């Protein structure tokens, strides 16, 4: 399998790159700083320096792959709109390239709190998280409006820690019991597993350790 990873130099992205290579995938790592990041040395890894909002660069990165993995980050205010408009460009270029499968990182705020509201709509949801949560929700909206086979993984606080293999998931809702944390390694492990299992096509997924 050949995949392209957007956000490859971030905490989750680096885990995705390492684990995908371990699985024997051919990996394209896309980002502004891929040549200065501590990427593994591997003949199956292609580093692509590019800008997320550049249509041609994103298209060329996606063209010829089997699937897309997105672990896009951005600033804490959401003002750069990397998560939403970056996802919009990825979706557009995937359709142009004829690639339909994407597994993407969102945020816990996009999950259901009950039948009528989202977690981010709860009165006690921390206000400081709302700008980024709104960005994730916009990205989800772009995916839902597309014909793509997406899985939108909605983690809580992501820890810079390796894989344990001990985590739980839940479709559309926060898993119970909820630890409010997930190791970056475990998040990457689930995303790559879902890429093959296809258990959550066009679905949101809650996850925690």
Structure description:
- 32% of the residues lie in helices and 22% in strands.
- It has 5 helices and 10 strands.
- It has an 8-stranded mixed β-sheet with strand order 3-2-1-4-5-6-10-8, sandwiched between helices. The protein has a two-stranded parallel ribbon with strand order 7-9.
- By secondary structure, the protein is an alpha/beta fold.
- It has a single domain (2-208), classed as NAD(P)-binding Rossmann-like Domain (Rossmann fold), CATH 3.40.50.
- Helix 3 (82-97) packs parallel to helix 4 (130-145).
- The mean pLDDT is 96.
- Strand 1 (2-6), helix 1 (11-22) and strand 2 (26-31) form a beta-alpha-beta unit.
- It has helices spanning 11-22, 55-62, 82-97, 130-145, 184-197, and strands spanning 2-6, 26-31, 45-49, 67-70, 101-105, 149-154, 157-159, 168-171, 181-183, 203-208.
């Amino acid at each position: 399998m050949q995949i392209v990873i957007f956000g490859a130099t971030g905490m989750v992205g680096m885990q995705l790159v390492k684990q995908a290579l371990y699985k024997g995938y051919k990996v394209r790592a896309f980002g502004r700083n891929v040549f200065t990041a501590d990427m593994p040395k591997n003949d199956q890894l292609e580093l692509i320096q590019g800008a997320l909002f550049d249509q041609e660069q994103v298209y060329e990165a996606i063209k010829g792959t089997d699937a897309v993995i997105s672990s896009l980050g951005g600033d804490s205010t959401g003002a750069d709109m990397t998560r939403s408009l970056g996802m919009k460009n990825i979706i557009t270029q995937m359709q142009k390239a004829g690639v339909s499968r994407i597994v993407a990182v969102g945020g816990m705020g996009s999950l259901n709190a009950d039948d009528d509201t989202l977690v981010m709509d709860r009165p006690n949801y921390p206000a400081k998280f709302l700008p980024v949560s709104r960005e994730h929700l916009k990205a989800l909206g772009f995916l839902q409006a597309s014909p793509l086979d997406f899985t939108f993984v909605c983690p809580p606080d992501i820890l810079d820690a390796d894989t344990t293999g001990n985590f739980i998931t839940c479709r559309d809702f926060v898993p119970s019991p909820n630890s409010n944390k997930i190791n970056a390694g475990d998040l990457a492990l689930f995303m790559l597993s879902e890429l093959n299992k296809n258990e959550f096509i066009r679905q949101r997924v809650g996850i925690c350790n």
